[in-house]
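hey so u asked for the seq, here:
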Amino acid sequence: MKHLKYILILLLTVSVTNAQNKEAEQIKKESNKFTYNANKALQENSFVDAEAEYRKAISKDGENATAKYNLGNAYYQNESYEEAFNRYKQASEVALTKAEKHSAYHNMGNVFMQNKEYEKAVAAYKNALRNNPKDDETRYNLALAKEMLEKNPPKEDDKDKKDKDQKEQEKEQDKKDQDNKDEKDKKDKDSDKEKDEGGKDDKDKDGKGDKEKEKKKQDDKQDQNKADQKDDKKQQQQPKPNQLSPQQVKSLLQAMNNAEKKTQDKLNEKKAKGIKIKAEKDW
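ran it, structure tokens below
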């Protein structure tokens, strides 16, 4: 009974798997049918019908890389490059073979070239060559993309430029704020220094004023002493009442000397008359 139970489980599992496989095959079959119809409509230049049939195929089977790739081609021919890129990208994600991946990346590169996004085109063509290194068309496109990239280096997009400008503005504003703060601190420091020096100057000024007052007082005292001495000398030079002046005393002494000299001369004259002079001796 135990072995029978395992056999029943195995048969049930195989039955479910077969049913799932049949369902998956049916889904792929229906999806492929929609893809066929879309390809036919596209050949008949009926883009609207082709787009509708491709969408049905993709909706039926999300793994249908062919439908996604062909729909991308339809959009590309209709110059709807953004939609074309999205379908090529989806095809590259579900592609099972390198050939399918190569085609998807190659056409993604073509979309980038149309949009003049040469840097992205170079990357897409390189991915295509990784899946098929021998494709000459991809090699040519890659060389062309590199040449265009060299002539047209990538520019900053508006968002990046805006963010960069904003950062630069913020940085500049921060610098201005810091400069203003430094200037304010410097002014405050200078103001405090001036106050300190002002107090010191007042103190020095007061001290200096006291010294100047003291010096002036001493100078005034010295001037007064000099004036007093000058007055005393002047008073000494002036003759007092009943007192001869120095000039009068000098004249009086001169007169007395003259009178004494005359008297002496007379006496000498009288003595000379009474004395006899002796003769000189001969040898």
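The chain has nine helices and no strands. Residues 272-283 have pLDDT under 50 and may be disordered.
lmk if thats what u needed
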